[in-house]
Amino acid sequence: MERIALVLGATGGVGGETARALLARGWQVRGLVRQLRPGLDPRIDWREGDAMVRSDVLAAAEGVSALVHAVNPPGYREWDKRVLPMLENSVEAAWANDARLALPGTIYNYDPAETPVARPDSPQEPATRKGGIRKAMEARIAESGVRALILRAGDYYGPQPGNSWLSQGMITPGKPVTRVTNPGRKGAGHAWAYLPDVGETFARLLDREAELPRFARFHFAGHWDPDGSAFPSAIAEAGGRKAKQVRLPWALLPLVALFNPTIRELLEMRPFWNHPVRLDNRELVAFLGEEPHTPLVESLRASLKALGSLE
């Protein structure tokens, strides 16, 4: 039986790493891009189209057994207006092909002040606008009845710049790491997810389709920084030089946010830097036997190298 997956967002972080992991496991992978261009991974069957156009998604998804919905508007532009319509197109495509719909989830579904440890079935009471949208996305998938796989994780980081705290808030891509900005409150733990590990986890789960429940939810623990200092210190170590560590000047961000939509979105996430939200991955480990886990400094060294921040 042919295993074909359509990955929406295959040029991005989660989508790109999931596509690579699926290819390594013998899947045929399709990707949807607005315009075909040089430099795209030649192993992927690229289709031209827009995730906002249902007919494009339906055409690209014909005959697939899995659909990975890892697409987001670049730079968070019109995020609240585009995210749910894009998901609706993926739901329809999954139904049309009886495919498993896989969604990368986040910790934003939870209230960080009330949920220090989150299990897959913990109550979702988001305290932010983005968290409310994330909750609505999962609810739409659940009510649709499609076969689904949701994998929630902490803040992503990895070899691609993307919308990540590492590349947009903690270091300067393209320059050696001489300074690391720490967004967290002193003593507050934080969950981090290395993108290649997340992609590998998705691929292992999709490989075991026959054993998954119709609506499957798992938590990816990733790297847990217990007091908010371990991750910045590991960045400095991976950078190979002594780096100054400074606190993020949150008080100044509202001014910058007036002109920068990405900063505006990041600013909304401040509660997650003031309160710890740790993801309980026991169900994932029980199902897979282990969680894919690249050592922290090794993962950061690979990320910094790809970001042009290693000498």
UniProtKB/TrEMBL annotation:
Q: Which domain of life is it from?
A: Bacteria
- Output the Pfam families linked to this UniProt entry: NAD_binding_10 (PF13460)
Tell me which positions the record assigns to the signal sequence: none
Domain NAD(P)-binding: start-end pairs: 9-156
Q: Which InterPro entries match?
A: NAD(P)-bd_dom, NAD(P)-bd_dom_sf
Protein name (record): Nucleoside-diphosphate-sugar epimerase
Q: Which organism does this sequence originate in? A: Sphingomonas kyeonggiensis
